[in-house]
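Incident review: delayed structure delivery

Summary: a single-chain prediction request sat in the queue longer than the usual turnaround. Root cause was a stuck worker, restarted by the on-call engineer. No data loss occurred. The affected request and its eventual output are reproduced below so the record is complete for anyone auditing the incident later.

Affected input:
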Amino acid sequence: QVQLVESGGGLVQAGGSLRLSCAASRRTFSTYNMAWFRQAPGKEREFVAVIGWTSGNTYYADSVKGRFTISRDNAKNTMYLQMNSLKPEDTAAYYCASRTIYTGRLYLTLPSEYDYWGQGTQVTVSS
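Output delivered after worker restart:
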């Protein structure tokens, strides 16, 4: 069982920055991919970014490419999402997710492909 806890959300003006963190409750040696998703009110949960836990390879949604950076600290069992040049349309609850079943694929962009989820942290970007 893995517990994921997000933090770092808040209210920021357009053009500002935030850094989200996702702390795992135990060693993530059996984790293959970790990702960030977001969900705005009335919308489906959408993929933001994914990182290979061992390789460090990354993949981003087109809507955040060049503005967001996903990273991880294996020693701290923590994943991050650095969000720069924030826009009002980035407003959403942000969730971290992990996959513990090996697929050999990095580009897992569907919520159903992940085993564990955090409770979410709210990001609100004002115009």
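Verification: The two ends are 40 Å apart (CA to CA).
Action items: add queue-age alerting; document worker restart procedure.
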